[in-house]
Amino acid sequence: MKRVIATLSAAALLVAGCGGSSTGGAMENAAARKVTGQVVVFAAASLKESFTRIGTEFEAAHPGTTVTFNFGASSTLARNITQGAPADVFAAASPATMKTVTSAGEADGEPAVFVRNQLQIVVPRGNPAKVTGLADFARADLKIALCAKQVPCGAAAERAFAAAGVVPKPDTFEQDVKATLTKVVLGEVDAALVYRTDVRAAGDKVIGVDFPEAAKAINDYPIVALKSAPNAAAAGAFVAFVQSAKGQATLAKAGFAAP
Amino acid sequence: MSRHRSGAPAALLVPALIGLAFLVLPLLGLVIRAPWSRLGALLADPGVLTALRLSLITATVATALCVLFGVPLAWLLAQPGLPGRSLLRALVTVPLVLPPVVGGVALLLVLGRRGLLGGWLDRAFGVTLPFTPAAVVLAEAFVALPFLVLSVEGALRAADRRYEEAAATLGAGRWTVFRRVTLPLVAPGVLAGAVLAWARALGEFGATITFAGSFPGRTQTMPIAVYLALETNPEAAVALSLVLLAVSVVTLACLRDRWVTRV
């Protein structure tokens, strides 16, 4: 009899878990099962510093787990996932790239927006070209780097330029936000558009310049556990951890805004 | 050789066929999965033609540079009794085994706007190389040059030195000997090396995107266009790949029978 009750209550817990919203369900599942083993997280390049820290915190909170990251352009990661790359969690830098994964039926539940990010102008230390706003991106005498429009930071940059009515004259379209930032760090370009968080992560090698149109090009970052996750329990736990107060505090420290 | 054909051991034949299938099947897959019905529309995009033209021009210029500097370098390496030859050859081979992206970073650090040489170029002449077609050519030449040098060096060392000695005995100067005797002797080797270098330059991706960036019509070569198309429009990427495949196959087919097998 006791056993029957135990089975029933476990089933009820499971039903509750399934019935709730994706994140709520993930959290309860995580609480119900012991989380161990490796969790593979595919995350947008712009999340590199903050997620690396969250990974360490997650491993400390769940002894016996190891978090392995694959950082890159969200669009590349989304394509890898739909082609069967073994991943447990996907965190994208835009809803559009997340949609690639959800419409392929690869997401376990609805993605949840966990942070927002804003573009910022980034210039080399000392700002040699005296860049002050988006209008400078139309100057032909400057070397300008932008993200390719296929990746989220490039799409956001397009929105910002449209809002400002500026036609930029870029010299290169880089394949992800970190590649764009690198060109500024090396001093090869005079200005670029990256996320505020990337500017902060680059430290004193670069300077960030705010511009008013950034408010019109804000990127929502969705996260989701994947249906074919090799380690579903840990996937749910990681998604929950990113949304927990501790995870959010780490993200805020990196310069992300709350959703 | 034909006497023993029936006795080809399975221990060799089976792995040989697996190896062949491994090389051929992915290309076959590309051809089979290609969106043939929409191919015309996909390739009619003006961006495709721009990228293809840029690729063909830069690869050809890079190959010309390779021949110009690579043949003399190969000649130097092939000189008997050259001190430190194994070290020199190792240095020439490094870009061959180096990941191209590393080559791109190295080029950026030397020829970039703040690079060792590039900084001086910028200050003295106002010339900056990154993000220009010239940077694409340099990146391609950097990875392609070893192919040409090693190919020509092999031909030089296999060539019969007695012709050169005879020419010298008959009173020809060293430059004349090189131009009239040595060069014609190793011409097939030079051509084979040039084709290899051209093919390598055409396919260059890592060093190019790192050093030259990616801008349509200026630095966005076919391989970079394929990579970016894959982000949003995989069908277009397959169509572009097909073009590169066709160009490579046609080039090899044109030259292989006539030159490459002779070496």
What would your notes on this structure say?
The complex is a heterodimer of chains A (259) and B (263). Chain A has 259 residues and is of the alpha/beta class. Chain A has ten helices and nine strands. Chain A has helices at 2-19, 22-32, 48-61, 74-82, 95-103, 152-164, 177-185, 196-201, 232-243, 245-253, and strands spanning 37-44, 65-72, 89-91, 112-124, 144-147, 172-174, 191-195, 206-209, 218-225. In chain A, β1 (37-44), α3 (48-61) and β2 form a beta-alpha-beta unit. In chain A, α1 (2-19) runs antiparallel to α2, α3 packs antiparallel against α10 and α4 runs parallel beside α5. Chain B contains twelve helices and no strands. In chain B, α3 (46-78) packs parallel to α7, α4 (85-97) crosses α7 (133-158) and α8 runs antiparallel to α9 (174-202). With 263 residues, chain B is mainly alpha-helical. Chain B has a domain at 58-219: MetI-like fold. The A-B interface holds A 73, 75-76, 79, 143, 145, 148, 150-151, 170-175, 183, 186-189 and B 108-109, 112-114, 128, 130-131, 209, 212-216, 218-220, 227-228, 230-232, 234.
Which SSEs are present, and which pair or pack?
The complex is a heterodimer of chains A (259) and B (263).
Chain A: H1 2-19, H2 22-32, E1 37-44, H3 48-61, E2 65-72, H4 74-82, E3 89-91, H5 95-103, E4 112-124, E5 144-147, H6 152-164, E6 172-174, H7 177-185, E7 191-195, H8 196-201, E8 206-209, E9 218-225, H9 232-243, H10 245-253
Parallel strand pairs in A: 1-2, 1-3, 5-6, 5-7
Antiparallel strand pairs in A: 3-9, 4-7, 4-8, 4-9
Chain B: H1 10-33, H2 39-43, H3 46-78, H4 85-97, H5 100-111, H6 118-125, H7 133-158, H8 161-169, H9 174-202, H10 206-211, H11 222-232, H12 234-256
Q: Tell me which oligomeric state these chains represent.
A: heterodimer
Output the structural class of chain A.
alpha/beta
Provide the CATH architecture of the domain at 58-219 in chain B.
Answer: Orthogonal Bundle
CATH topology of the domain at 58-219 in chain B: MetI-like fold
